[in-house]
Design brief:
The structure is a homodimer.
Chain A (H helix, E strand, L loop, with lengths): L1 H10 L14 E4 L4 E3 L2 H4 L12 E2 L13 E5 L6 E4 H6 L4 E8 L5 H7 L12 E10 H7 L4 H6 L2 E9 L5 E7 H5 L6 E6 L2 E2 L9 E3 L12 E7 L6 H4 L28 E6 L5 E3 L4 E9 L6 E7 L7 E2 L1 E3 L16 E8 L6 E10 L24 E8 L6
Parallel strand pairs in A: 4-13, 15-22
Antiparallel strand pairs in A: 1-2, 2-3, 4-5, 6-7, 7-10, 8-9, 8-13, 10-11, 10-12, 14-16, 16-20, 17-18, 17-21, 19-20, 21-22
Bound molecules: molybdenum atom (MO) (2 copies).
């Protein structure tokens, strides 16, 4: 009987109700599900199709019935505000924001090559861009009683997901109050992604979208919002998703000494050609493509590309989204795809192609990985480098 | 007679009424006056004494009579608002902000060593920190008729100085409207520096202080404020103070292609020991001091220091201002001084000491100068490096 019970527990896999995923995704972890699209597909579209948008789950995907779903807004003087999905859709204006999300661990694999780090071995595609629609968090907080009196003591807005581990601990995170309540912060309680209901992997029925802020604070399957004097006490806010000096190791690390990652730094990467790829001499030129993005609403203003390992640089052409108006100042939440077409250097057998981006605060990417290496492998934003071979093809006539 | 006239013009030097300056300043240009303090003095005090605060004048210092001084606020529906110095002091609440100003050309000399650039050859001390008091620009704009209707079309706030060249052209610059009118932007029409009337070199009787923004927008000897749909048309806004790719030269540069510098990127430098200095072996250790600052209200959260040219790093101790409350989030306008005391590596004859800082968006400084070199030599924020010799002193017993 004990054996039977054990088997029944074993077979009740909490991941068994996870959704079916797109076969093109490169899987880093199945349970929880973590996967990224192939880079060359990523840069094909300004808006990433939801099916190939990178997936970063910390826990099993919860199954939420949209009819009985309730969102609780807590910590405000009026008491708890309870909202159904219908309430969220009908009682508040619907806002739409195009925003790029990036995992703190994007490009971690490059840090792993320097020295082993702890975390999923992400390539360069744990970043994607989508259109999100929902109620503004600001509007919901105002409806729940937020006002100048609250601003006196409150400092953070905490989010709790409906996803939980076997012990019942839910995913949680928080953002600074001023981001949450600012007219220009554009924080959404989103119920649509790319014009459709949120997919199960992206937080159905409601997630937070915090434009310009690390993926980890964009809590999915949102169950509770709490206005507080304190940051979220969750593991992911307190003891994870923080940056440290390359000299800090697991014996000496003090997680209290570093701030939780919120806004992300300037980032860019080359999606085409792939590292280790080949270019044909006869083509005479090479086309280099990639993405660039910066956190905090800072707009990418330039991408420099080198074909000779960083000795000389040319300026890439930045492509805006089609039919997208230029973002208001300080609210450039979406990435820019970019492209360069350059003649092949006549003598070269191999190219080291590098990209580096600049944002409108003129922040630049660091040159190399070792000096920004950190034990969790987060914030990996050094210049991106790919090596390609030039092949002398004999196709001819 | 013609000769006489010519001589009289020649001797009427527009700089003849410039104030007397502190003899410790290192002069980069006398007319206009541009000078910086010795680095080791700079890091002696969190608040830089006004006399040694770096001076960056584009034109002769105008002599302004405080009694007849008038400030004009233009471009708003109610017409021109004219304010006397007394009006500014008595009709608006007095606000005090501690803010670091940095010249766009700070550390330009390091770029000059890579390849010649155009501009004053600043060392590492074209940056200083002071306490500024005055009316909030926001309050003055509201009094002058700024409101939601203006926000629909206005995008910039232009400033015009009373300093002019021989042809009568005045210094001018602008900042984005949202910085100017935000409650949290802390932009001041300042009439005090470090608790006293503004010194002549720093804009007496009124200057703009735009915390987190490049020095060039902090217009001194302020004569006019204009709310506009357009940026300032001045040379300094349009055809100067912009960043470019290292591959861009004076033949190919298109000033329209780059945004005017506003928020500055993460910066740090070593003030002690000086480059080329010596450390005595017998002391057994070396004390390294410096400053770190980031634009846009981003707080410096860490400074890494290396004694071995970047192979290994230790974390410096950050020193806050005495009696200063921690800044509200997103409003860290002041620098942090920092210090490290480290044992001398036993074998070394020479040390290459490096510092690099990190702000709360986890932006990092680039490793090296050549990839960020630009024809105007601005935004020079690569890791700062100094070399010192270790001397075997024979003092003994
Ligand atoms: Mo993440
Ligand atoms: Mo400057």
């Amino acid at each position: 009987e004990d054996l039977k019970k054990q088997q029944s527990v074993t077979t009740s896999d909490p991941y068994s109700s996870d959704p079916v995923r797109h076969p093109a995704l490169r899987v880093n972890s199945l349970k929880p599900f973590n996967a990224e699209p192939p880079p060359e597909i990523l840069s094909d579209s300004y808006i990433t199709p939801s099916a190939i948008f990178f997936k970063r789950n910390h826990l099993p995907v919860p199954q939420v019935d949209p009819g009985s779903y309730r969102l609780y807004i807590e910590g405000l003087p009026g008491g708890v505000l309870t909202l159904s999905l219908e309430d969220l859709k009908t009682k508040f204006p619907k806002h739409t924001v195009t925003a790029t999300l990036q995992c703190a661990g994007n490009r971690r694999s490059e840090m792993n090559k320097v020295k082993q780090v702890k975390g999923l071995n992400w390539g360069i595609a744990a970043i994607s861009n989508a259109t999100w629609s929902g109620a503004k968090l600001r509007d919901v907080l105002l409806a729940a009683g937020y006002g100048p009196d609250v601003a006196k003591w409150a400092r953070h807005v905490q989010f709790e997901g409906l996803d939980k581990d076997v012990s019942g601990t839910t995913y949680g995170a928080s953002i600074p109050l001023n981001k949450a309540v600012s007219e220009e912060g554009d924080v959404l309680l989103a119920y649509e992604m790319n014009g459709e209901d949120l997919p199960a992997d992206h937080g159905f029925p409601v997630r937070v979208v915090v434009p310009g802020t690390v993926g980890a604070r964009n809590v999915k399957w949102l169950g509770k919002v709490t206005v507080s004097a304190e940051e979220s006490g969750s593991h992911w806010q307190q003891n994870d998703y923080k940056g440290f000096s390359p000299g800090t190791d697991w014996d000496t690390v003090d997680f209290k000494s570093a701030p939780a990652i919120q806004e992300l730094p300037i980032q860019s990467a080359i999606t085409v050609p792939a590292d280790g790829g080949v270019v044909e001499r006869s083509s005479g030129e090479v086309t280099v493509k990639g993405y660039a993005w910066s956190g905090g609403g800072r707009e990418v203003v330039r991408v420099d590309v080198s074909l000779d390992g960083g000795k000389t640089w040319q300026v890439a052409q930045l492509k805006d989204g089609e039919n997208e108006a230029p973002p208001p100042p300080g609210r450039a939440w979406a990435w820019k795809l970019w492209e360069v077409q350059a003649p092949l250097p006549p003598e070269a057998q191999e190219l080291e192609i590098i990209c580096k981006a600049v944002d409108d605060s003129y922040n630049m990417q660091p040159d190399s990985v070792p000096p920004i290496w950190n034990l969790r492998g987060v914030l990996s934003n050094a210049w991106h480098r790919v090596k390609v071979k030039i092949t002398e093809d004999e196709s001819g006539e």
